[in-house]
Amino acid sequence: MRNNLNMSMAKSRLGFNIRKLAVFQLREINLLIILLALIIVLSFTSPYFAKWANIKVVLGSLSIDGIVVIGMTIILISGGIDLSVGSMMCLSMTIIAKFFLGGVNPWLAALLAVLICAAIGAFMGFLVTYVRLSHFIVSLCFMGIARGVVHTLTTGTPISLVRALNAAPRFRYLGQGQIGGLMPMTVLLFIIIAILAEIFVRKALLMRLVFYTGSNEKAAAYSGINVKRVKVLTCMACCVFSALAGVIYVNKFSGVPVTAGAGLEMTAIASAVIGGVSMNGGKGSILGAILGLSLMALVQDALTLFNVPAFWQELIRYIIVLGAVVIDALRQNTAVRRTE
What we know:
Elements: H1 2-19, H2 26-45, H3 52-77, H4 85-101, H5 106-129, H6 135-154, E1 159-160, H7 162-166, H8 169-176, E2 178-179, E3 183-184, H9 185-203, H10 205-215, H11 217-222, H12 227-252, E4 255-256, H13 264-274, H14 286-305, H15 310-339
Antiparallel strand pairs: 1-4, 2-3
């Protein structure tokens, strides 16, 4: 009787929280306004910004990083974090390249890479839930393990797939095709994935369980939610999205640079937090995270257009990351004070 009561109370509270997720929240509107203002300023201050060649470069990087950000958003909502997303993307690329060059059909090679990364995500989730290690420690270790496997498989040498992809034009079209001669295929794929992910996050019952787990893990467990299963699935989802980004990356650039994805975890975390995803879990949206990434991409593009030295760009990126985390912490503290 008591368990049923707890379950009904949890569901009512969960339903209330989900209903508060409007299509456009105030933070997302503010981000959209900032983005539009930045676009206008850059259009007037740089003669190269509004050119289609530059816009395609920005959209191209946004489409690959954006897929990783989607996975990071889901795991952050659950109350976890994954520092291995960049290394996992590079591992996926290496697996595809090795299978492809070994004579395996490229589509099958891509599928095998995604499945292997999903299995790694499941093992990471197992360590977090059953061995009770922290997401931070587990993902930090796998960041190094995945990168080490990449260097072992490649001997530290970049892999070229130019000839192999020329022999597989349909697969190559996935990363290098153009829609109408203007829109890159990668951008279209990203838009489709982002829309589907946004609908899933806002509407799917499973994501309600993820939100509830992230907002109050103990209450979710007492309400009958299988918290361990939820956390394992979110770890798998994050790795799968990283692997999908790797599929597009290796196709788009016709090879595997062994440094691919380096620092991507910080970009993904900062983008999600800027977009309103809470580092403490239980709050966020795909739309907000993508807007946050768009802001990061525009800032990076502006620094490049104005010839800011690379070391200054790195410094500014990490200052943005720190600022995003500080703002999130202040927002959480303010919310706690209001409830007291």
